[in-house]
Design a protein that fits this description.
single chain; 577 residues; alpha+beta; Rossmann fold; 7-stranded antiparallel beta sheet; 6-stranded mixed beta sheet; 11 helices; 27 strands; elongated
């Protein structure tokens, strides 16, 4: 609830801006100092921070002692003040007994001497003695242990005046401990990727439709921009670690500043993106589902073969007498398996009766996964399958089963999805002449993408949102090629050349040089379901598309995306699926 001791305006604005290039004991950086200078300039020139209230520490000024001295001096601020803290430099993470511990590295810091570093939670604890109602930490460094807490559900809209009367302590960091923060390459040309998008947001690109810029809007803009930048290998995380107000950076007529006119605005709350918190480290739980079901060794002849995948196939032949079973040469196999000791509470009987179909919502085509239409159960699993019925809805006298695809969900939370009919084909087969085996590129990537959200939805029904490994496997890839490239033309009219669009001398003009040399392909990923958003999913899918392209000797951008873009042809995928 709002604290009526706070006024719906700021009395004063303060900032501590730190940028370190010239480290004394570890490798130097090139652009952190420029990042700090750019941020300080925008705070003063665009956002109403008096120059005398912006404390800047660069290079040899940014010792551990000086940083803490300046930070603790803000104990003298008033309750209606705001404080902006920016750090550009190295970060470090140490694994503690209760999880990751994040550190900022001052200019005199030594990684092997933790007493010379600044623990992130030293800043958060000391923030308690700073009276300012709003503090925003912006960290262009990679480390873990933010301890961001999700805010309560506060409705669809909030008044700026309400947020100004609530305490807030917010943070955004450039990336996690296992990511590399880019020290260059940002769109401004002179700043890091993270700080470039931060500056864009501060200068107006992150404002809402009413011209209001809150910390949440700024952080969401930076998060989306950095996560989707093709040159970025990092994913920012942001949120509150105390309070539920929001740091206000800009209003249309400076209503949030002293002497500003009276006025108020409604803003829509932004979903926060906390750093994923695994309940335990992944290595403490040994997943066994994939290994037990044939997904351990992609070089093995038995890769992907288990009692359920052996049912994949179809009936061919014009009559019951000539009818035979045709098993596929290959298929797409997707496995999701929990790796945390967070309990999974899946009700198999309930899933069999009422597992909701994941449909298109809010035009999010990447969430549209169609469930197979038949169900069978075992003591520990439920299987949704799409059978192949040759003439009637009955089993063949031989007792053989043929499934076009299936989705198997175990009580343990392990999920296996296999499909061959929509992702494979044989081209150019004539009589006894063997054809060319193909995998459909757009269909593969679309299935990999949509199934990821289906798995998240299924496991959420068991109250599981922690870590999983995601195994993407192409079974039977040997000597196949990729077809079904994106067809959307570029503005100049050019598009990807399709492998089988023409024939030469009665033969398909097939790019045989694109045959896969690997017997099977497997791409393993680790992710946390609670933090799976569009940017993280797209990064994973882009990596799949690139690895598949390389496996098929495509030495160019993935041809399952529209030529010259990273736009996936969802209409093409859904129309042919």
């Amino acid at each position: 609830m709002s604290d009526k001791s706070y006024r719906p305006q700021y009395d004063n604005s303060h900032a501590l801006v730190i940028g370190i290039n010239g480290y004394l004991n570890i490798n130097q950086l090139d652009i952190a100092r420029a990042d700090a200078e750019s941020v300080a300039a925008v705070l003063v020139g665009n956002l109403g921070f008096p120059k005398s209230h912006v404390s800047v520490l660069l290079d040899d000024q940014a010792t551990r002692a000086k940083i803490m001295e300046r930070f603790l001096a803000f104990e003298s601020l008033g309750p209606d003040d705001r404080l902006f803290v920016f750090f550009a430099g190295h970060g470090a993470t140490v694994t503690g007994r209760r999880g990751p511990v994040g550190y900022l590295v001052p200019v005199d810091g030594k990684l092997d001497d933790k007493s010379t570093l600044i623990r992130w939670d030293d800043l958060t604890r000391n923030a308690e003695i700073i009276p300012a109602k709003h503090i925003l930490f912006v960290m262009d460094a990679c480390y873990s242990g933010l301890a961001i807490q999700r805010t309560a559900n506060i409705g669809e809209q909030r008044f700026v005046s309400d947020m100004l009367q609530r305490l807030s302590r917010q943070v955004i960091t450039a990336g996690k401990a296992d990511e590399t923060v880019a020290d260059s390459g940002g769109p401004t040309g002179k700043n890091s990727i993270f700080t470039s998008y931060l500056l864009e947001g501060l200068q107006g690109k992150a404002v809402n439709e009413n011209g209001v810029l809150t910390a949440s809007y700024l952080m969401n803009y930076v998060y989306q921009s950095v996560a989707n930048d093709p040159k970025s290998n990092q994913t920012p995380h942001f949120g509150h670690f105390d309070g539920d107000g929001d740091f206000i950076l800009r209003t249309p007529s400076n209503e949030h500043l002293p002497k500003g006119p009276a006025g108020d605005y409604l803003v829509k709350p932004i979903a926060e993106q906390p750093e994923p918190q695994l309940h335990v480290s992944a290595p403490s739980i040994k997943p066994v589902f994939a290994e037990k079901n044939g997904y351990a060794d992609p070089d093995s002849d038995s890769f992907g073969r288990n009692e359920w995948t052996r049912k994949l196939g179809r009936f061919v032949g014009g009559s019951e007498e000539t009818e035979k079973v045709e098993r596929p040469f290959g298929w797409l196999a997707l496995v999701v398996e929990p790796v945390s000791n967070q309990p999974v509470n899946l009700d198999i009987a309930n899933l069999a009766k009422a597992l909701p179909e994941v449909k298109i919502r809010d035009e999010k085509l990447y969430e549209h996964f169609s469930m197979p239409n038949h169900t069978i159960t075992t003591a520990k699993s439920v299987i949704f399958l799409e059978p192949d019925y040759p003439n009637s809805d009955r089993m063949r006298s031989s007792g053989e089963e043929c499934w076009k695809r299936f989705l198997r969900i175990e009580r343990s939370g392990a999920i296996e999805y296999c499909d061959y009919l929509t992702v494979t084909a044989v081209r150019g087969q004539r009589g006894g002449t063997p054809g060319i085996r193909v995998f459909r590129y757009v269909s593969l990537i679309g299935q990999i993408w949509t199934f990821l959200y289906a798995a998240k939805r299924i496991l959420s029904l068991g109250n599981y949102e922690a870590g999983v490994r995601y195994l993407v496997s192409i079974v039977g890839a040997k000597d196949s090629i990729l077809e079904q490239f994106a067809r959307q033309p570029r503005e100049d009219g050019h598009s990807w050349r399709q492998p089988f669009d023409s024939e030469i001398d009665g033969r398909f003009d097939s790019p045989l040089k694109w045959k896969c040399r690997d017997p099977n392909i497997q791409m393993p990923f680790k992710l946390v379901l609670s933090s799976l958003g569009e940017p993280e999913a797209k990064k994973l899918v882009m990596e799949c598309a690139e690895q598949l392209g390389l496996a098929y000797n495509h030495q160019s951008e993935p041809r399952c995306f529209n030529l010259g873009t990273d736009v996936f042809p969802w209409e093409q995928f859904h129309s042919g699926h």
